């Protein structure tokens, strides 16, 4: 009995710490999703059905892609506790034995030849497996795709931290007109350098600092969502019906289909759950997402849609416009802190990717420091950390005068 209690306590602790490393990016999506969906020509469709349809699209996309695909399915496809693109590739290599990388081990050969004495008949290999064994070109293409995915993770580690930090702190100019953009950039640079400097303390300790920020942020946006539903449009609950998706496309036509790319911004950060699986466990991530993150974000999207259905003129700044006046500054501070935390998840994902690349023999040897021996996957790579920081500043600081042009 004590063993089960200790295991449950361990899951709860990891679930709490995952808020600071995994769900930061996902929790800040409400800042810009509706603004992006109704950008361009979509702004001309100002009906209640369109607002309801936008929420229905976001809700079902979030439910299917984040809850069902990533949380229920992808978290189970780990490779000895590790997640990410290379984990899937390693699983394919182990079961199909078509790896082009020198990572095949003798123990894998022994396991692959093991047969249960009670099993009298062997399972014939599938046609797909036989095709992969014979077609070397396909294996080469698959390896290139895997390496491309790893490169994309590293690029996100360079681009996401400066963009998320500056986009949050840049909001100061909305209320403080005397504040110059150069001052905001200087503050953001200091925050960014400090964040990378903290990485040597280990992702475990960094995650312990950030969870309260994300928890308070999620509670805040959930409360704002409930307020907007009650105050602006209590009938928004009808938007849970997929029927409003049909009405959305019926009224918006081609522009509605083009807006689907912006709808997928609602699941920005869900891939971090799988990429950062080595730092936690599947059970802890499921507990955190299902019991807290999912409900808070759905309430926020629901409330923001209720506000937009009655105030289409405020779509470009719908999140901040929907906040009661007295709560603006506290929520703004929490939004800025949450955006800073959001960049931590991609940095940790970059460390995990480098560790997997090195294990598969496709990256020069670098020193990978395990900060906690009893939790597999908590690593720190000093060279990668400083490369990410220098690259972020090099891409960002020279462009600070035309920041938004650079982003778009």
Task: Explain this structure.
Residues 103-123 and 402-408 have low confidence and may be disordered. The chain has one domain (11-107, 125-400): Up-down Bundle (Amino acid/polyamine transporter I), CATH 1.20.1740. The protein contains 21 helices and 2 strands. With 408 residues, it is mostly helical. Strands 1-2 form a two-stranded antiparallel sheet. Helices cover 68% and strands 1% of the residues. Strand 1 (369-370) and strand 2 form a beta hairpin. It starts with a helix and ends with a helix. The longest helix is centred in the middle third of the chain and has 34 residues, at 136-169.
The total number of structural domains is 1
Spatial ordering of strands, largest sheet: 1-2
Along the chain, the helix and strand elements come as: HHHHHHHHHHHHHHHHHHHEEHH
What is the typical, i.e. mean, pLDDT?
79
Output the structural class.
Answer: mainly alpha
| CA gyration radius, whole angstroms | 23 Å
Number of helices: 21
Shape annotation: globular
Strand content: under 5%
Alpha-carbon distance between the two ends: 56 Å
Give the arrangement of secondary structure elements:
Elements: H1 2-21, H2 24-27, H3 33-37, H4 48-73, H5 85-96, H6 106-113, H7 127-134, H8 136-169, H9 172-175, H10 181-197, H11 203-209, H12 211-232, H13 243-252, H14 254-258, H15 260-263, H16 270-275, H17 282-310, H18 318-321, H19 328-359, E1 369-370, E2 379-380, H20 382-396, H21 403-407
Antiparallel strand pairs: 1-2
What would you say about this model in short?
This protein is an all-alpha fold and 408 residues long. Helices cover 68% and strands 1% of the residues.
